[in-house]
TrEMBL record:
Organism, scientific name: Gregarina niphandrodes
Basic and acidic residues composition bias: residue spans: 177-192
Annotated region (Disordered), positions in chain: 1-45, 139-192
Keyword Ribonucleoprotein: yes
Family matches, as SMART domains: EFG_C, EFG_IV
Comp. bias intervals (Acidic residues): 16-32
BP terms from Gene Ontology: mRNA splicing, via spliceosome
Protein name, per record: 116 kDa U5 small nuclear ribonucleoprotein component
Length: 1040
């Protein structure tokens, strides 16, 4: 038996099989088969690689990474921002860039107003016809015979030729937009929420009523009160503002806060845009005379608010809004039209150049559609005269054909006086618009088509008449009212150019001396001077990791590759710590959804800068790096070269925020290993939102402080999805609480330094409410000269001469916390050591004045109760013993002692806690007021007023609501009113919490709401426990 028939284990495997002839022939055929020519050429193109003899071969027998992780990571795409790949063509780009070198032909404006008042839709109207900006699926090519808002002859906009000699308007195939594109809402969450979150810039070439092109820099700002910080950042860069006010609702709470920002930034050049005119026609269905009264009332309310806001800050109110002056424009973003008195005046003044049928009387209906029926002959008035006539109590007498200020008598007694003879604004402007609306809404195609073609010269495609009413009306209005030229003319006339406004802009925002060479260059917008840029905004790139800063060139020319000094908000000539060097690697013209890269940005222009954001947190000042001695060689980057720089450049003032951040949320990553990602994500969130603050408490919790619920929700969304890419665990939202006193220090005790060589004695008491309001409004601050401050305190607040001259410092929040600007805190320190004492003691105290001031501001930033801000307290230094030797009175000895002395004085002056109060504005029907008041009462709310909105069925309820009880208030009110109420809440004031926070006799019961008088104690205990502090607050810790 052959062993080859069995394997090594004794299993029978049998003899080897011999190959058959068929298998042998098939294998030989496969080996000899020719390779196809295409495959042969492909094989020839495969390169032959030689193995590096130094290469190391690694053989892995199992996966080194989980199956859920791909071997090659896919490229992450930005699915958060709406990015347009459209670019301007070459000639359009060059024309746009060249216009920026002519500041006289440029205007920089911020579009501001309340939420849902038509700001973003107005920007859509501005961008209509610019194919490089919007992905438009249809085109409208027509010719206008000169409707209100016409351009000059031959002006081209989106293929539409407009001019006074054209007699027809034609619409091409394609449906009009059925909804607003909201081009400046470039974030996905903005589109989903239906509210703007970030301010978005645009740079547009737009014609005025004469057909002359101007470069209009536009910043579309959010209207929600939680994003007023975006308004502050936008207004700082602008020379003027367009105030958007809903013609139905009028000015609301957000508009009032916006006026405060404009007044603080000294932006006095404004244009009023009354939007949503269509709501008066289609929703309220007001007759034209009542619509005029409603518009006049809204303009009067705006003028009243402007006057009150500027007067309260001690400033001269700006020019009154008056349609006859030209600084008021009307329009509707929903139906794409804008008009002014000037546009209609030019329309009527040019009627003598028209053809037959000058009054556009319909041959079929016999009534006027384009103008009022009283117009029988071409007017013998020019456009300037008609502009003044078309507003106010002025009527046209049908018999004499003259305008008069007294209402003419009506011959037919049965006829309504207002309908028979109306004011000029009603007869010549409102009634034609009403008739256009009524014809389009109420007529069918057989009657509407001849009306549009014969009376208005508007020719539509047959398919257009099958559109829904809103789309058809929008198309007709878009063709009849030619673009935004009336608004452009108002902006050009009433808002100065960057060069004309440079002097006022620098005086209002620059913190340095105005006598330096750099300041003089900025005051005159000198393009030949040193390049200075002021930045206020940061926009992230597509990778969501790096940022580009957005700012305004104040002087000189910013060029790509220029070396810059980046000066942060904490920089000063005496402390250059917050300063770094950077290179402007990229320069763009930012168009919200795309960027146009440029080589240079001239003085007065807006620019997006890349490569300089590493050390910028909020606002910054960029200065061209130029050595004192240019001939000494090239500029080097080493810190040793600092002595060769010009150190005369100072920073611009930090931004003013009208709303205080009062909502705080603590968060932590679900996976502890992602803590570094959380820290980096919080830093990016603080950079992206101008007023958001982030800090780490002693307990290790990372805290986010925002202006409101919506702002906190957006910031957390960005932290999770955009900047951090991690899962978070968040605590219940809370509010910021402050400390104060309601009495005087009973017994002043001396507090000694650790070395026993110095002693300080302070007392504390309440600060006057009027002075508190002035400090909050930044009318009184540390930057005032001593003599100016003393005169102000004596004249305005009734202080005596000795006390007014004894002010050492006001409290300052400083810049120690991320994202917190140097804003004054309403607490003050006085040197109350009487002059009758020995002059030696007063001189010794002045030696350590700076140290005592630092200790006082430290105590004001972190109080003894809950380590929060101390407000409304007047600290007085009543005695001091200072060591004669400098060694024993250094900062390490005096500063902590001054802090402990302030704590001891505060704890002996009946300390209390203060909670933020929100001003709630609720707009609802009259039958919902009872439900709204009930919801507010359950949340410790206090109703201030309940007033009807004139001309509407709505009422406005104003109330104070504690911020602690305001979480979920909006949802609660909507539920109880079936969604008929609209509410906004914004920080308004601080109020003292009832009860004594140091009353140890109070026993809090878990899971039960605390009584009203126990709230202060509950706040104190919960806050201290959250921060890792002991429950006991004892004065013994701060005394010797």
């Amino acid at each position: 038996m052959s062993e080859q028939l069995y394997d090594e284990l004794g299993n029978y495997i049998g003899p080897e099989l011999e190959e058959s002839e068929e298998e042998t022939s098939s294998s030989s055929e496969e080996e000899s088969a020719p390779v196809p020519e295409a495959e042969s050429k492909a094989l020839d193109r495969i390169p032959e690689y030689e193995v590096d003899p130094n290469a190391m071969m690694i053989v892995e027998e199992e996966d080194a990474q989980p199956i859920t992780q791909p071997i090659i990571e896919p490229e992450k795409t930005n699915k958060f921002n709406l990015i347009s790949e459209e670019k301007l063509s070459g000639h359009e780009y060059r024309y746009l860039a060249s216009m920026r070198s002519c500041p006289e032909l440029c205007r920089s404006i911020a579009i501001v107003g309340d939420i849902h008042h038509g700001k973003t839709v107005l920007c859509d109207l501005m961008t209509e016809g610019l194919d490089a900006l919007m992905d438009i699926t249809e085109s409208e090519t027509g010719r206008t015979r000169g409707g209100p808002g016409q351009q000059s002859k031959g002006q081209q906009i989106k293929g539409r030729v407009t001019g006074p000699n054209r007699s027809t308007l034609r619409s091409s195939k394609g449906a009009a937009h059925t909804r607003e594109k909201k081009f400046t809402d470039s974030r996905l969450d903005e589109q989903e929420r239906g509210v703007s979150i970030k301010s978005s810039p645009l740079c547009l070439l737009l014609p005025d009523l004469r057909g002359k092109n101007y470069l209009i820099n536009v910043l579309d700002t959010p209207g929600h009160v939680n994003f007023l910080d975006e308004v502050s950042a936008s207004v700082r860069l602008s020379d003027g503002a367009v105030l958007c006010v809903d013609a139905l609702q009028g000015p609301m709470i957000g508009f009032k806060k916006t006026l405060q920002i404009l007044a603080h930034e000294e932006v006095n050049s404004m244009v009023l845009y009354l939007s949503c005119i269509d709501r008066l026609i289609l929703e309220l269905r007001l007759p034209p005379p009542d619509a005029y009264l409603k518009l006049r009332y809204v303009i009067g309310e705006v003028n009243k608010l402007v006057r009150e806001t500027w007067t309260s800050l001690g400033k001269v109110p700006p020019k009154t809004f008056d349609p006859a002056v030209g600084n008021v424009v009307f329009g509707s973003g929903r139906y794409s039209f804008v008009f002014s008195l000037r546009s209609f005046a030019e329309y009527y003044a040019n009627q003598k150049h028209r053809g037959s049928n000058p009054n556009n009387v319909s041959e079929s209906t016999g009534e006027s559609c384009g103008e009022h029926a009283v117009y029988q002959q071409p007017m013998a008035y020019d456009a300037d005269t008609l502009t003044q006539i078309f507003w106010g109590d002025i009527w046209l007498n049908p018999q004499t054909r003259k305008f008069q200020k007294k209402k003419p008598a009506v011959e037919d007694e049965d006829e309504d006086e207002d309908e028979a003879v109306g004011r000029t604004f009603v007869d010549f402007i409102l009634k034609p618009i009403y008739k256009i609306f009524s014809h389009v809404v109420g007529e069918e195609k057989p009657t509407l088509k001849p009306t549009l073609e014969n009376d208005l010269g508007i020719f539509l495609e047959e398919s257009d008449y099958d559109l829904d009413t809103r789309t058809l009306l929008k198309k007709v209005c878009r063709l009849y009212f030619a673009g935004v030229s009336p608004l452009v003319s108002a902006v050009v006339e009433h808002i100065p150019s960057p060069k004309a406004n440079a002097h006022y802009k620098v005086m209002a925002t620059y913190s340095g001396s105005l006598g330096t060479a750099v300041a003089k260059d900025m005051l005159t917008l000198n393009s030949e001077g040193r390049c200075i840029v002021h930045t206020t905004k940061s926009y992230h790139r597509h990778d969501n990791k790096t940022f580009d800063v957005f700012g305004r060139v104040m002087s000189g020319v910013l060029r790509r590759g220029m070396r810059l000094k980046v000066l942060g908000e904490r920089y000063s000539l005496h402390d250059a710590e917050d300063m770094a060097l950077a290179t402007a690697e990229h320069l763009w013209i930012y168009q919200s959804r795309f960027r146009i890269e440029v080589e240079a940005a001239p003085a007065g222009s807006w620019v997006l800068i890349g490569g300089v954001d590493a050390t910028i947190l909020k606002s910054s000042t960029l200065a061209e790096l130029r050595p004192v001695h240019p001939s000494s060689g090239p500029v080097v980057d080493e810190p040793e070269a600092e002595d060769d720089w010009e150190d005369e450049v100072e920073t611009f003032r930090p931004l003013y925020f009208a709303a205080r951040n009062v909502v705080r949320i603590a968060c932590e990553p679900i996976a502890p290993a992602e803590l570094p990602k959380l820290v980096e994500g919080l830093r990016r969130v603080a950079k992206a939102y101008p007023s958001v603050r982030t800090h780490v408490e002693d307990s290790g919790a990372h805290v986010l402080v925002c202006a409101g619920e919506l702002a906190a929700d957006c910031a957390l969304h960005d932290l999770r999805v955009v900047y951090g890419d991690l899962e978070l665990r968040c605590a219940d939202p809370g509010t910021v609480v402050c400390e104060t006193v309601i009495g005087e220090t009973a017994t002043a005790a001396a507090v000694g330094t650790p070395n026993g060589q110095n002693k300080l004695t302070l007392s504390a008491g309440p600060l006057e409410e009027a002075l508190v309001s002035a400090i909050d409004a930044q009318l009184v601050h540390n930057d005032l000269a001593p003599r100016e401050l003393a005169d102000l305190l004596k004249k305005q607040y009734g202080w005596d001469t000795l006390a007014a001259r004894s002010v050492w410092a006001f409290g300052s929040q400083g810049l120690g916390v991320q994202g917190l600007g140097a804003q004054a805190v309403p607490s003050v320190l006085l040197n109350d050591i009487l002059p009758s004492r020995t002059d030696t003691k007063r001189r010794d105290v002045n030696v350590v004045k700076d140290f005592i001031t630092h200790g006082f501001q430290w105590a004001v930033r972190e109080g003894p109760l809950i380590e929060e801000e101390v407000r409304n307290v007047k600290f007085r230094l009543i005695d001091a013993t200072i060591a004669p030797e400098p060694l024993y009175r250094n900062s390490g000895q005096v500063i902590p002692t001054a802090r402990r002395a302030a704590y001891a004085a505060l704890l002996t002056a009946e300390p209390r806690l203060m909670e933020p109060m929100l001003l709630a504005e609720v707009v609802c029907p009259a039958d919902c007021v009872t439900a709204v008041v009930g919801v507010l009462a359950r949340r410790r709310g206090r109703v201030l007023s309940d007033l009807p909105n004139p001309g509407t069925p709505l009422e406005t309820v104003l109330a104070f609501v504690p911020a602690t009880d305001a979480f979920g208030l909006e949802t609660d009110i909507r539920i109880h009113t079936s969604g008929q109420a609209f509410i906004q809440t914004v920080f308004d004031r601080w109020e003292t919490l009832p009860g004594d926070p140091l009353d140890t006799s109070i026993r809090l019961r878990p899971f039960e709401p605390a009584p009203l008088l126990d709230l202060a104690r509950e706040f104190l205990l919960k806050t201290r426990r959250r921060k890792g502090l002991s429950d006991d607050v004892s004065i013994k810790r701060f005394l010797d």
